[in-house]
Fold this sequence. Notes:
2 copies of one chain form a homodimer.
Chain A: H1 4-11, H2 20-24, E1 25-26, E2 34-38, E3 45-48, H3 56-71, E4 87-93, H4 98-105, E5 121-127, E6 135-141, H5 144-157, E7 176-179, E8 183-186, E9 193-198, H6 204-213, H7 218-230, E10 235-237, H8 245-248, H9 251-259, E11 262-263, H10 275-281, H11 296-310, E12 317-318, H12 335-357, E13 366-370, H13 375-379, E14 389-393, E15 415-420, H14 438-450, E16 456-462, H15 468-479, H16 489-501, H17 506-522, H18 540-561, H19 567-599, H20 605-629, E17 671-675, E18 694-695, E19 702-708, E20 717-720, E21 725-731, E22 740-746, E23 754-763, E24 767-776, H21 779-785, E25 796-799, E26 805-807, E27 813-818, E28 825-830, E29 845-852, E30 858-864, E31 877-882, E32 888-891, H22 905-914, E33 917-923, E34 929-937, E35 943-950
Parallel strand pairs in A: 3-4, 4-6, 9-10, 9-16, 10-11, 12-13, 13-14, 14-15, 15-16, 18-24
Antiparallel strand pairs in A: 1-7, 2-7, 5-6, 5-8, 17-19, 19-22, 20-23, 21-22, 23-24, 25-35, 26-29, 27-28, 28-35, 29-34, 30-33, 30-35, 31-32, 31-34
Helix pairs in contact in A: 3-5, 7-9, 11-12, 14-15, 16-17, 17-18, 17-19, 18-19, 19-20
Amino acid sequence: MLNRREMLAAMAASGLYAGPVFAATRFTPGADGFVLASRGQAPAAILVDPQDLPGVARAARDLAQDIGRVCGKDAVVLHQGDRLPARIVLIGTLGHSPLIDKLAAGGRLDVSGLAGQWESWITQTVAHPFPGVDEALVIVGSDRRGAIYGAYDLSRSIGISPWYWWADVPVSRRDHIAIARGRHVQGPPAVRYRGIFLNDEAPCLSSWTAEKFGGMNAQFYGRLFELMSRLRINYLWPAMWNNAFAVDDPANAALADECGIVMGTSHHEPMMRAHKEWTDNHQLYGNGAWNYATNREGVRRFFREGIERNGNKEAIITIGMRGDGDTALESTGSLASDVRLLETIITDQRRIIAECLGRPAETVPQVWVLFTEVYKYYNAGLKLPDDVTLMFADDNVGNLRRLPLSSERDRKGGFGIYFHMDMHGGPFSYQWINSNPLPKIWEQMNLAHEYGANRIWIANVGDLKPLELPIEFFTAMAWDPKAVDKDRIAKWTRDWAATQFGQTHAQEIAILLSRYAKYNAWRKPEQLSPDTYSLENYGEAERVCAAWDELVVRAQAVDAQLVPDQRDAFYQLVLYPVLACANLNHLYAAAARNRRFAQQARASTMAEAAEVRRLFRRDRELRDHYNLQMAGGKWNHMMDQSHIGYFDWYPPETDIMPAVSEIELGPDESFGMAVDGSSHSWPGYYLPPSLPTLDSLSRRKTYIEVFPRGATMAPVTVRADQPWVIIREDQAFGVSPHDRRYWIDVDWQSVAPGMSEATITVKGSATVKARLTAIRATAQQEREAKGAWGGLAGAFCVPATGFARSVEARGVRWEPIPDYGQGPAAMSVFPVTAEPFPDPATAPRLEYEIFLAEAGSYHVDLVTSPTLEVYPGRHLAVAIGLDDSAPVTQAVFTPEAGAAQDFLGSRHAANTAANARRMPFTIKPDRPGRHVLKLFMHDPTIVVQNIIIYRSDLPQSYFGPPPMERG
Amino acid sequence: MLNRREMLAAMAASGLYAGPVFAATRFTPGADGFVLASRGQAPAAILVDPQDLPGVARAARDLAQDIGRVCGKDAVVLHQGDRLPARIVLIGTLGHSPLIDKLAAGGRLDVSGLAGQWESWITQTVAHPFPGVDEALVIVGSDRRGAIYGAYDLSRSIGISPWYWWADVPVSRRDHIAIARGRHVQGPPAVRYRGIFLNDEAPCLSSWTAEKFGGMNAQFYGRLFELMSRLRINYLWPAMWNNAFAVDDPANAALADECGIVMGTSHHEPMMRAHKEWTDNHQLYGNGAWNYATNREGVRRFFREGIERNGNKEAIITIGMRGDGDTALESTGSLASDVRLLETIITDQRRIIAECLGRPAETVPQVWVLFTEVYKYYNAGLKLPDDVTLMFADDNVGNLRRLPLSSERDRKGGFGIYFHMDMHGGPFSYQWINSNPLPKIWEQMNLAHEYGANRIWIANVGDLKPLELPIEFFTAMAWDPKAVDKDRIAKWTRDWAATQFGQTHAQEIAILLSRYAKYNAWRKPEQLSPDTYSLENYGEAERVCAAWDELVVRAQAVDAQLVPDQRDAFYQLVLYPVLACANLNHLYAAAARNRRFAQQARASTMAEAAEVRRLFRRDRELRDHYNLQMAGGKWNHMMDQSHIGYFDWYPPETDIMPAVSEIELGPDESFGMAVDGSSHSWPGYYLPPSLPTLDSLSRRKTYIEVFPRGATMAPVTVRADQPWVIIREDQAFGVSPHDRRYWIDVDWQSVAPGMSEATITVKGSATVKARLTAIRATAQQEREAKGAWGGLAGAFCVPATGFARSVEARGVRWEPIPDYGQGPAAMSVFPVTAEPFPDPATAPRLEYEIFLAEAGSYHVDLVTSPTLEVYPGRHLAVAIGLDDSAPVTQAVFTPEAGAAQDFLGSRHAANTAANARRMPFTIKPDRPGRHVLKLFMHDPTIVVQNIIIYRSDLPQSYFGPPPMERG
């Protein structure tokens, strides 16, 4: 099924999947090299020195089975005393595998540079390594995870997706597997600890584990640890709401240690103890209060037990203290006294660590997480021991809040990032589906990397599924950020798609994967409402629905071409998100129409109500297919998360259908009409209808909609009194075939330059006249507007990428981040660590050619990403200037008044919900015609998506006017 | 049917209906006096001198028929040359009726004091007035309306309701009518011109007149003028949207003049011309623009034609100019230039008046109306000729904006008031039903009277029906304000009810009439939404529904006892408004439950959706009965006005059912619970449920609701862990019998003084524990709280009338206005013309005994009426003080920022929608226990309804906590 040659060609440039072993793997029958497996022969046997560290043998066993998955017969894992066959795969840890060490000492294995490295390995073919062995493929790790990752790297290279079990990705069968001879070095990773946090695991993960494993026990965690190791994720915050990792199954912690998983606990669970352990037993500790000021001894004993229990199992110990259950610390009265209390807590915690483990605290990895309100203690000057990793949490919506200052970077413990791909909490929850476009993850995590927050990266991944794609991307970036630059995200996605589904559809699937996440990030599904996209202006709601419809058609076309055993993987990774999110957007559009149509007294109001009910049922059918049909019900409950009808920050108890209305039908034969750009209807509204002005530069069309108000409608005619008006009948946006749309366009050749007026008469049971104004550019206007953005009437949008010139300064320049934000790309400043340019005159800039029909004053709304001022002392400013006028510099207003608030205030919440922030500027052209709009860098890390330019009021819409075709 | 004796007893004290003739009327068979009619005899004949003024003979003919309605045989109206019978009723105008003048000259008729009076008359029996005539009942008017009103006064006295035709009020048949001999003087009225404005007449009045009369022609206006004269309404602004009084039927204007109706045109239609005349023909006038700056000659000609056409028919000519069709004047660039333009317009208009009528303009009644934006021109110093009446418009919602300063009051033209009982426009429309409680009309119009705005009162009455009651009240006040003081409004209403329905049910009907209007004024039906009344807090929504339910029961009980021919009148005047408004309040409550229950995942969500649909249908059934069944369809279309689903200031094109939602049912057997004071539900919400604290002083109860979330519910038990908790099962607020409420009360005898805690455990398919805190007062607290307002926990409300002491100063004091506002009465300052008291120390005050459980800081929200600062230079201030602490004076903030705005800004709009304004104060008791809260007058005309006192957050509700039972 996989066309190997195509895949290789596609993957050659990727540092992620086309690792050197991957590149050295040959499937062509008879291909030369170390023959791992070949039809008719036993696969090479796998050997691990029995003295090697735990976990290596486990990875070796997985590799043996993986070989079987590919070639039909598992490899033999050799045991002590077994006779060595002619071909073996030897896996081991340098300094812990006598077999390996012997080969190295004998000069047969080149381990130069490996010793002391973190999670690095060498894969090398060795001829005649041992007596009776013709050839060995040796995988030697600098440490045990190096060896483990080396084994799984071979698995991946021969075609085992890390998601083979977790996303039912089928394996391509091969008759022959050979590894070209040579020595391949991999590692170390850029980020030492790469983690995930299983969080807010009810109702999905907890119900699924209960049904499939009987709880979050070692059977479940074994599956998870295997996935993590295949993805080279080495750090875990385990599920903790109503779960206690170390207590629920005593085998859990031992298994983690065996598998080489570094355990931790979440930001609000210090000292290796789950919150649930406290809630279940708090009355046994002092006065039972989670309060260090009033129950110090009780809490200390609780802490001590955690460290003692964990012993020397590899861990990063979360220190500090928050409130009881992911809430803010109970204040002791003042910020200063709270800071002192926290310092006392941390001092005590480190004393406990040192006492229990019998070694200095600074030798034990620890992390203190600045989550939400915790920032204020740090900002107030809390002193943190230098060896503790200082972890900056994002804003819960994937926008980093803080990065290390250059003056801070040399702290011994380094810095970490706690990132969210899933959230249960403020400013709003999103737990259902993937709404994390990779370019956005890249843009923010690239800052983390470049600014040196590289010790730990951990992502809150909710129930794990359905975040397969962003989890792997996040981890891949952490492993090797340089391998995933902004211009190769699409390529990376394509390679990922090829890994799961083969080359044939990889490009198309990559588009589907990136688009559905991108559309979901316009506004997260949980934040959608009937109000989100405008029904009236810019055909916005229907454009969004059309974009989703296109994805549905393309996804269904791919689905129809896949072979049956790919279908389950495709449904969970691609088809379900596309269908369910498209359905959801249609649901809210139908609810919006129901409400608006009721206000317009359309008879189709009731048809739209029925459509809402149908789409609500459809959402459940899609979910039920995921839970109950897909993979034979293997993932039952994984899609239980409610996601429709949010009314607060937390998810609704059950999905709530958008409310729908009914009206009394009007008289038989009666009709109504509505026009583009207005919510009103006629006959009825007291002012006459007026259509948006059309102009020959913008080349937009407009429309009238005519609809029955009663059970029947008398014939209606739509006529213009001017020959240059072109009218074309169409179906209205909605489900009723009786609601008609009449597109109104202008035959620009037939109308004189300048302004012309026409009247469109709609005649049925009554007569309504709508006014249309058309402006044709004069010859001079046409000359001046050529190649420029802008028209003769109305607001217009210039995509940030639509510049005519980019002027760099001191090696700093604006560059596009492809596929980021609302349009095809967004512009940001690179390198991201550039110093600010306080003077626009010398700053990198973009120049946009624009055409303004009149002199006067214009609003310029800069649509930026809602990212935050990560670098204390900088204000994320940018400047706008027109022609040679003095540029005006403005600072992004976030976090503004909200800066002192735990969740950064309601304005930032609104910005994150909209995933955009508007910065208002003004320009004042002194003459009509062509101008140059200039965008000057001030601070790095700002991201500009669109520029909206308008004279007075901007019609209400979510995005503003759509970017025009270039004139 | 009418028990005459009871009626007389009831009406004796009323100056409105128990006029002297009414008091002199006897129905007892054989009663002495002038016998108007008696079984077996011809009624007294009616005589009008043929030379008398027009209109008098018309009233005489109506009287003749009215006598027939009462006694079964019309009186004969004598014509010139008829032989005079033994008993005659002679009606005439002093100085215009030779017959009358001869009697007066002969000393047979005492007309002393009558000549020169405005609309006055004498009703006197004269023995042997003419040869062959034994006795005459002479009705002599000081002017023709005096004579006309005299005739209708006799009609009313013998039992003809002014509404006999307009509200189908049946007439009681009598065998004998005698008028006790004597001389009865009536008039003149306090307000010279008492008017109504038929406005926004589509869809009701216009459709009704089209169907019943073929348009707004003289047949229709004849009916209207008769009603007006019976009600002594002498001034009319005719219907003008798509209607033109003088053009639609050329007989209209002549008929008005004949009937003694003073015609005018609305505030935005100057010079006796309808707006429609301009829109239909504007192209014939100059450049066709309604713009005095650019089309002066065209507009002048339009004006001139209006004055010429009206000639010497009695009128008050509206002068000035607004924009094209009840919009603001198009500005000429600055306020100063606009003022100059308006002065030019008025000068030109007066020149036209003088030229066309051939007499000085100052001899012709004129009015200039300060409507909405027009105030700004006056405030900017526009000079108005002294003889023009300056009419102050209210805020469109019945709150006066301006009253004459004492320094202004001697202007020759005097002042008028334009008042709204119906509105199509900003801040919101209310056109459906009567939402004008009489005490509010009294309170505001009493100010107009006392401050000398007495020349003209005109009310916008929409379609006229169903505003029968407030129209008559407004007019009655205008006739004789002293006869309707605030303490006699209930009495007046009872008398009005007795006039329409007889004495038996008058008291009950008066209560129904006043209550439904009062409840509608809490929030006008058009402004209701599912959000209006709180579902969670204070049982508010259910209290409102219960209040309506009580009216429904009482109204239906009356209806069942009425005789059949009273039913139509009762339906239109009482039953329909009660049923329809109760239904509407239930509709929104059901919609609110649907939404909240969906959020709580109640299985009953769908039952509430069905209830919304049922109540929406019921609204239409009630309307259809009014239109199609009642009085045989006589009033078809009068109830066509849409009133459900407002989404803007204008009414929806058709009624829009509140949107309803659906949810997916939860698992079988599952349940949820909710608690008083919270919108959350459990299992689900992350914080545990907590009930409002109960205390032994407030004696409130609280509740838990338990409901199925699936198709079935396992048995649920609700148990407390403390013996002092009393639990009583009940039906929850909603339609599903499966949703249960458990009332939680405390057996205060069984609980110790101080704070006690209990846990209520709800156990079914899951277990939920709710915490209850109860505070029992100590013996000292009980002593201190005795007779004081306040409790030990939570916010409390002190009704404004709940004072312990009222301290007057210089004859000024706080007094209750009964039945005003949210509670049984509101407090205002009398006399209303009192000067301000800037120093609280010497000001009239109210003292409230309150009990505060703790020392510290409390919010005090003074709930006042949203009336405006009618007296320039005063700020409607009031002061609050606690015990002997220094009082804090605050000015009502309206119109605040909105003062400069045409509609007084969004805050005033919100206040008028809520029909209340909250003024925030703070008190800081330095010890717990009993205190005296003092309310000091600063300015007159403020009205205080309630005082809400709370420590920190006030639970969201519409009214705040309900007034408690006095402790």
